[in-house]
Amino acid sequence: MDPITLGIIVAIALIALMAIGTPIAFALGGVSLLALIYDRGLAELTYFGETFFDRIAEFGFVAIPMFILMGAAVASSPTGRDLYRSLDLWMGKLPGGLAVSNIGACSIFAALSGSSPATCAAIGKMGIPEMRMRGYPDGVAAGCIAAGGTLGILIPPSVTMIIYGISTETSIGRLFIAGVVPGFMLAGLFMIWTMIACKMAGGYNNPMAESVERLKQNVKQNVDTNLKALVRVLPFLGVVAGILFALYGGVATPSEAAGVGAFLCLALAILIYRMWQLGPIKLIMRDSLRESVMIMLVIATAEVFAYALSSMFITQTVAAAIADLEINRWALMGVINLFLLVAGFFLPPVAVIVMTAPILLPIILAANFDPYWFAVILTINLEIGLITPPVGLNLFIIKGIAPDISLRDILMGSLPYALCMVLGILLLCLFPGIALWLPNLIMG
């Protein structure tokens, strides 16, 4: 059987398993195991186990559970509430100010947690009920949180960037800094669309349920409360700034910086928010362990899947076919973007990166594209997958937060933000310096 036909059969089997609800890791592992046995026989089971464990034994992966622990400590504390309050104080007077402040809170919380689901859940639990209470349309309230949550995998520190760096053997510090300007560019595009959407829906210049007189009476109290909230958040932002400085300055490796950051964020959550009880700490550890094991299992099985494809010469054949396309390099980039977009519709970001990055990187380099610029393009494509069906993880998180909002309203409110991400990709293609200027400036 030729490699292309075999690859199609493997892809159909994988899609079929995921369509019936098989967890991603088990679907990848099961298809890989059957493919290897078919191609090499039962003796290949030895290499299955070796490949599975060798991949996740790399020291660089220690950074993943540490950053997840750091994010869990932040997400389990009232940090998101304090961010929300303080940003509402400064952005509340903009058109659709409350929705805009939620996107700002998502941007900052993304830097603290490094996780899109955590960002979406932490800010959404407070932001969505408040926006609906003040009269914002359900689509605007749900869409801005779902889109803002996607920034968690782009704005550093980002777990997906760590996985890309290890998979492609590129500098994680440089990847982090390459995501800074594009991340805040996307946040700016989200804010602009939010203000337009609120204007179209009838204004929302910081609508409040209280009367004007009552607002005047409470304004000092609100300012004092929000300033205190901002003071509580600043130490966490200081930890993130310290981590980035340590990485960019060459003071520490990503794993060392992540370990120190996790310890400091956990200590700050305990000291600032008085989380002395054993229960909250156990919850933080439990959530960190679950997410870490899930990600590491996906990485291990995705590596076995990549090994199986390579053993059957499927990867090499597809890569050669793409490389042999006699088309303009930007047309090639368009094909790759379309492929990543479709992959993001069905697979979580971690699985897509581990399976595709090593395959696509030689093609990207041969076409004279920068690998760090491409990492940002890849990540934004995967962000789109987080707010589009059929998987659309952030859509279902919003549905869990606000079950009385229909999935249709959540989806329709999120789709304009997906178009903002497409615009962001186009801007990055026209002006690659958006992603490359800052890392070149800082790291040479």
Strand content: under 5%
Number of DSSP-assigned strands = 0
Query: Gyration radius, to the nearest Å?
Result: 22 Å
Parts with pLDDT < 50 across at least 5 consecutive residues: 205-221
**Element pattern in H and E:** HHHHHHHHHHHHHHHHHHHHH
Helicity, as a percent range: over 70%
Secondary-structure class:
mainly alpha
- Sketch the major β-sheet: none
N- and C-termini, Cα separation:
49 Å
Mean pLDDT: 80
Helix count equals 21
Oligomer: single chain
Shape: globular
> How many domain modules?
1
Structure described in brief:
The protein has 21 helices and no strands. The protein has helices spanning 3-19, 24-40, 45-56, 63-76, 79-91, 97-113, 116-133, 138-150, 159-168, 172-178, 180-201, 212-248, 254-272, 278-311, 314-323, 329-346, 349-366, 371-386, 393-401, 407-430, 433-443.
What does this structure look like?
With 444 residues, the chain is mainly alpha-helical. It has one domain (1-441). Helix content is 80%, strand content 0%. The protein is built from 21 helices and no strands. It is globular and about 65 Å long.
